[in-house]
Model the fold of this input.
Amino acid sequence: MTDLAEVQRDLIDEQQALDTLVAALTPEQWSAITPSPGWNVTDQLGHLTYFDGAAALAVTNPAEFRASVDALLTQAGSSNDGGDDFTLGAFRALGPTEKLAAWRTNRQLLADAAATLEETTRVAWYGPSMGAKSFLTARLMEVWAHGTDIADAVAVRRPATDRIRHIAQLGFITRGWSYTVRGETAPEGTVRLVLTGATGSTFTWGPDTADDTVTGSLEDFCLVVTQRRNVADTDLQAGDLAMHWLQRAQAFAGGATNVPAPRGS
Done:
């Protein structure tokens, strides 16, 4: 299996794992408030539904996708909700069964489109185009991170998996971005990751001779770089250099966002 095919398979598996959780929700739980400010469970799944559809369009019809980006930016610029009504309005009006069906439809569209990608394909997206593997890894990060918000909202503990190793790699390579997006300069020095997956496997990134090392669980690291947990709420171990990064880590694009406060605060 190629790297690209592996990411696609892990993306589909992660989507199905979240589907199992969401399919069992009660009507009341669809309205449960999630850690994302202003968003409930419906909004989290609506976000995935919209952008899975947009991702499929970006692969199959780049011109139409660019038109949709312009429409979204216009709406976001003329409203106070950051474009939420544009991306979530129709989804919010659906009943629970229809919401799940809409997400499944867009997931399938994305899976069909992703099957046409090659390792060298570049895909238009919001901002610079992305390589095919990074593009699908970003979709995997999205479904896992927003799935974490849903699980937190309904007090479900999802089993950890090694699928998120792709997210960890993305988190590692965006260390510099975590500073750039804040208008800061990254401190000099290199960082190595030594993380333990759910199966007991060890995943490493960075040189053996790095100036500092992050150790701990793969899951904890992914929770931090997707800003679903403050590093203080994890068992990650790091020296000053790496901890400085983890306290502002941001593996996703867009403007700088605030790391969540420690849950004990």
